[in-house]
Amino acid sequence: MTREVMVVENVLRVNDELARLLREKLTGRRIFTVNLIGAPGCGKTALLEKTLEMLAGEMKLAVMVGDLTTARDAQRMSQWCPQVVQINTGKSCHLEANHVLQALEKIDLGNVDLLFIENVGNLICPVGFDLGQDVKVGMFSVAEGDDKPAKHPYIVAEASALILNKVDLLPYVPFRKEVFDQDIRRLNNHAPVLELSVTSGAGLDAWLDWLRDGLRKKRA
Amino acid sequence: MTREVMVVENVLRVNDELARLLREKLTGRRIFTVNLIGAPGCGKTALLEKTLEMLAGEMKLAVMVGDLTTARDAQRMSQWCPQVVQINTGKSCHLEANHVLQALEKIDLGNVDLLFIENVGNLICPVGFDLGQDVKVGMFSVAEGDDKPAKHPYIVAEASALILNKVDLLPYVPFRKEVFDQDIRRLNNHAPVLELSVTSGAGLDAWLDWLRDGLRKKRA
Q1: Which of A9, A145, A213, B118 has the most beta carbons within 10 angstroms of its beta carbon?
Q2: Which residue range(s) make up the domain with A185?
Q3: In terms of CA atoms, which chain B residue is nearest residue A125?
Q4: Distance of CA A207 to the CA centre of its chain
Q5: In total, how many domains does chain B have?
Q6: Model confidence at B6, in pLDDT bands (50, 70, 90)?
Q7: Does residue B123 contact residue B37 with C-beta atoms inside 8 Å?
Q8: Strand order of the sheet with strand B193-195?
Q9: CATH number of the domain encompassing residue A135
């Protein structure tokens, strides 16, 4: 085994250990935690803005959001939610458990039912890093094309739900829904595929119900 | 310095050494080499398909294309170009000089004027890895939103040209062109910003002229 491989394995082992601590902490407080993973521009922040707005009166929400730089996403979401933490990763292409542990210090956990972790925009690197979440959600948009699940099998295989956003653009872009669906089912036959448009509002109810259900099971 | 940082630096040092060899080899044959970097679904493969089609009678072309898995992109492009090599990176989120060196063995370099390297769909990790290219081209699409340059400063700063694809979708998506442009100019005040739509064909001529100009300079 090369030294490089050994170090990568070591990084993952340390991450897994911190993720275990995180999971204990979050589960101890019965906080339902969602790790949202998708490419840049698939609509992660827009979806969370809308989700925070629609669920604010119903449950207590918190968000942490990873980006290389800027606080733009946290600024956008903070108008809908008092507990939003921006994590700037510098050159790192994904969040690690260590980032989440540090960001948790800025959140009043006694006031959280549902925690969103919006990962750095990237369909590849975030998948391998456990953040202590209950579920990973993989997000695509129709503007990206129908071949993205086949080309990114790890996020599809590990996701508890998959989102297809921007269905309002279907009339304007080439997208074969049957190819998208078939590729997903080959890799993951249990996760629901939630088709929606943050812009038009279509399909958002099913997404909110899926979150309510996750929180209910966590509390059961 | 931690052992992890040391190993990352070592990987980059080895990569830089291989990239130097690559650059010597490609420059010795005066092949103009373009490293195309953009998020999943920004339209890299579609742009190259169209580019191959439009330049095929004029110059000798070759492509290598990186994806975690599948040969779909190479299949799409091979109808327009006899020299297309698919590189499957497994779980690796970017191409390295080592991948390119291996793929070069499958290309008849005596029959190439212009070599495209379509990197793995990712706005972050590919930026740090020199592939012996003449130029890096950073690619965005209007569907991704106007905030992507500010959130991905490294590709913007290092690019010799920046592409904004899918301008045909401007009537259907929220996108502030002035925010996009200002953020780019803050990071890079020399690279042209080429606005185009692979679907409608708008703006492709300027892109082809930019490539012709690059090849001409390489040959001068």
Answers
A1: B118
A2: 3-219
A3: B93
A4: 13
A5: 1
A6: confident
A7: yes
A8: B84-88, B61-67, B114-118, B32-38, B135-141, B161-165, B193-195
A9: 3.40.50.300
Separation CA A116–CA A100 (nearest Å):
11
pLDDT above 60: residue B192: yes
pLDDT at B1 over 60: no
Query: Could you give the angle at the alpha carbon of B20 between the alpha carbons of B15 and B25, nearest 5°?
Result: 125
Q: Averaged over B195-201, what is the pLDDT? A: 98
φ and ψ at residue B42, rounded to 5 degrees? -75, -15
- Chain A residues with CB-CB distance to B174 below 8 A: 199
User: What percentage of residues in chain B have a pLDDT greater than 70?
Assistant: 98
How confident is the model over B21-76, as pLDDT tens digits? 999 999 999 999 999 999 999 999 999 999 999 999 999 999 999 999 999 999 99
How far is the CA of B20 from the CAs of B15, B28, B65, B87, in angstroms? 9, 12, 20, 20
User: What sign for the dihedral angle of Cα B111, B113, B119, B121?
Assistant: negative
Residue A122 per-residue DSSP state: -
**Number of residues that make up chain B:** 220
The pLDDT value recorded for residue A60 is 98
Alpha carbon distance B39, B41 (integer Å): 6
Give the pLDDT confidence of B120-135 residue by residue, as tens digits: 999 999 999 999 999 9
Which among A68, A93, A166 has the least Cβ separation from residue B151? A68
A19, HSE (Cβ side, Cα atoms, 13 Å): 18
Q: Does B3 touch chain A (CB under 8 A)?
A: yes
Q: How many CB pairs under 8 A join A and B?
A: 118
Query: Looking at residue B91, what is its pLDDT?
Result: 87
As a whole number of angstroms, the distance between CA B142 and CA B164 comes to: 7
Chain A residues in contact with B3 (beta carbon < 8 A): 7
